[in-house]
Design brief:
With 417 residues, the protein is of the alpha/beta class. The protein has a domain at 61-90 and 139-200 and 278-364: D-Amino Acid Oxidase, subunit A, domain 2 (D-Amino Acid Oxidase, Chain A, domain 2, 2-Layer Sandwich), CATH 3.30.9. Helices cover 32% and strands 25% of the residues. It has helices spanning 17-27, 67-76, 91-101, 105-132, 151-165, 176-182, 206-220, 264-268, 331-344, 389-405; strands at 10-13, 33-36, 53-54, 82-84, 140-141, 144-148, 172-174, 194-198, 202-203, 223-226, 231-237, 240-245, 250-253, 256-258, 278-288, 297-300, 305-310, 313-322, 356-364, 371-376, 379-383. Strands 4, 6, 7, 8, 15, 16, 17, 18 and 19 form a nine-stranded mixed sheet that branches. The two termini are 35 Å apart.
């Protein structure tokens, strides 16, 4: 089938928060954009019901010295928050070795600060957007408390506070009593040894953001959104990219930005583009707020859970199932997360009334740093945001579009070719 229309200036593949933000970064420059996704609407994949925290200060890389101590638990399956599958997708071996290569102090600092710089850009880009278009997605500055339950973990958290403080991040170390002064709902939590408080952290519903920004662009900017397009292949022809669907439809693209999350690796592999992405499956649940729902966002570092209040609802997210490529909710794992939530903040939510169950695949790189680079002529990647896609979406969008356009002073980030 022939291409359906003349190509727009930029075609964005993927309409999660990263893809929608990338479309915005292009249309705000006056460019025409076509946004393409296989789903029936925006933000329906890994963006749909994630933890909802905009963690601009908490950009700590996944791999650090403490990872070595976690390996026996991962292999034995004794840690309920983490699960590792060694069978199935063969990429786990190369990706895992690269992850371990990043599991040292110097790489932890480097990777954390790379992502911190992107988070700073993302906060600024979000502020600029909302000043121009006040989209309603329950966005507000709630602050965030990271709770620690043993002294070793607290000391490690304190080191990261010192590292980021030198880069303008506002974080303070609190004892249990001071943390409860900030958030009285912590009276229900036992065994807190201390906390890191980040007062400037924000929250917002990622799906409502994606839908709201798309509606804004459709009404005011040269944007076409094409949903239900099951992209099967990408090829180069006569100086353009051709996107073919399973149904035989073809879209022409002058410049292509791929923001397809975990699917990006398989999509680009036939072009010889190797993306070191690993699926890390997470779950979330949404419940009505309970009698002691926290106003501040909470991260329980022992149980690896986040609690985020969105109006009269509480979003709880967690679990990390490495090399699990099935996006469906796992009933057993969901039950484990629900049990952990009840242990952590028993009165925070009405756990008998689950409003929504969700699972999603986070596309993680071994160094926890997104891949934002020109991979081929006219083809830019904006992928690999791991657990921070919602946080980093706006900043990575600006960098990706600037790269695609060859704007002065722009280089692959962070130094990737």
């Amino acid at each position: 089938m022939a291409p359906h229309s003349r190509p727009c200036d930029i075609t964005v593949v993927g309409a999660g928060v990263v893809g929608v933000a990338t479309a915005w970064a292009a249309v705000r420059r006056g460019l025409s954009v076509e946004l393409v996704d296989r789903a029936e609407g925006p933000g329906l994949g890994a963006s749909y019901a994630n933890g909802a925290q905009l963690s601009y200060a908490y950009t700590d890389a996944m791999a650090g010295p403490s990872l070595w101590k976690q390996i026996p638990g991962l292999l034995a399956g004794s840690d309920p928050a983490f699960r590792l599958r060694l069978n199935g997708h063969p990429a786990i071996w190369r990706w895992g070795l690269s992850l371990l290569a990043n599991a040292n102090g110097s790489r932890l600092r480097r990777n954390t600060l790379h992502t911190l710089a992107l988070a700073r850009d993302s906060r600024q880009a979000m502020q600029a957007l909302l000043e121009r278009h006040p989209i309603d997605f329950q966005h507000h500055v709630a602050g965030k408390l990271h709770l620690y339950f043993n002294d070793a973990a607290l000391r490690a958290g304190a080191k990261m506070v010192e590292l980021k403080r030198a880069h303008g991040v506002r974080q303070v170390l609190l004892d249990a009593e001071a943390a409860s002064d900030v958030e009285p709902a912590l009276a229900q939590v036992e065994g807190i040894r201390g906390a890191v408080y980040s007062p400037d952290e924000a929250v917002g519903d990622p799906w409502r953001f994606s839908a709201g920004l798309l509606d804004t662009m459709r009404g005011r900017y040269p944007l076409q959104a094409r949903f239900g397009f099951s992209l099967e292949s990408i090829r180069r022809s006569a100086g353009e990219w051709l996107l073919s669907s399973r149904e035989g439809e073809v879209i022409q693209a002058r410049k292509l930005i791929v923001c397809a999350g975990i699917d990006s690796a398989a999509l680009l592999r036939p072009l010889g583009i190797r993306l070191p992405l690993m699926a890390i499956k997470g779950h979330s649940l949404t419940v009505p707020c309970g009698p002691r729902a926290p106003a501040t966002s909470i991260t329980d570092t022992a149980r690896k859970l986040v609690f985020c209040r969105l109006g009269d609802r509480l979003r709880i997210a967690g679990l990390a199932d490495i090399n699990d490529w099935d996006p469906a909710v796992d009933p057993a794992r969901f039950g484990q997360m629900l049990d952990l939530a009840r242990q952590s903040l028993p009165d925070a939510g009405d756990y008998t009334r689950i409003l929504h169950r969700w699972a999603g695949l986070r596309p993680a790189t071994p160094d926890s740093v997104p891949i934002i680079a020109n991979a081929r002529e006219g083809l830019t990647c904006n992928v690999g945001h791991g657990m921070l896609g919602w946080t980093l979406a706006m900043g990575s969008a600006e960098r990706a579009v600037a790269l695609a356009l060859g704007e002065a002073g722009t280089t692959p980030w962070p130094g990737r070719g």
